[in-house]
Amino acid sequence: MKRVAFVYPGQGSQVVEMGRDLYEEFPQVRELFNAANNRLGYDLTSIMFEGPQEALTKTENTQPALLTVSTALTNLLAENGIKPVVTSGHSLGEYSALVAAQAISYADAVQLVHQRGKLMESAYPAGKGSMAAVLGMEQETLQKELQSISEQTNEVVEIANLNCPGQIVISGAKAAIDVAVEQLKAAGAKRVLPLTVSGPFHSSLMKPAAIEFEQLVGEVDWSDAEVPVYANVTAEKVTEQEQIKGLLVEQLYCPVRFEEIIEQLLEEELDAIVEVGSGKVLTGLVKKVHRRAKTFSVQDVASLHAFMDWMKEE
């Protein structure tokens, strides 16, 4: 059997109608989607299939929706004997990775990420926090600029995601992000793109949410992961449940070190890195780290079958 890693997308990969063809094709996917509706107490499936986009983009809906599509695909692959030797995910996607590694049940995870989404929405006053993607600036230079902007504005602005070479996301108070958009361009960034998000995620401004989230994490049944999971906070493999729980709490206010995770995966002697879930964002990030890396994006019925056919090839 070929050795593959599964990586799972996070917020930003959601689209209306995601998972619909899987739902229509496979009874077991319908069961999973219905289980999500029952666990959450509302019709998540109709939001996923019908929208509107504004409803799907609400963090408390986006997170369980993406987890559900990723888990449906993971389960279909497992039924065909295809399992990863290692997993990871981008931010929210780490929960899909932990479900795949059987560290947490899907039923518990879907409820937990829904609550996580609510906490993230409410942790900082609406409209006062923001994020932006910075393209074409070295991390060290960016760090110095952010420190200067923070001192000028007396507001928090920090690195939130280290995605791939030349692509770093910053997070913080909207006043500081607004200054950063102009100042970083003047300092040499190729582009600075404000993101449509509802808060300053993966920054120290999320620490109040982390306190409450730690309690929620502690109420869930956890197991040691059956395959290693690269954690966002450390970019290192974890399997032990207590360490997993602690890192998930820290993940709310620490940077996502995804570029380092990709570099680690490329050292794993894998036959492919497979993005499992909606969209192709992570596939693009892998290619920016190593353009010749073997990748697959499994997000619908057609790509599912194409990947399974490749796995059967000698």
UniProtKB/TrEMBL annotation:
Keyword vocabulary terms for this entry: Acyltransferase, Transferase
EC number: 2.3.1.39
Keyword Transferase carried by entry: yes
Biological classification of the source: Bacteria, Bacillati, Bacillota, Bacilli, Bacillales
Domain of life: Bacteria
Official protein name in the record: ACP S-malonyltransferase
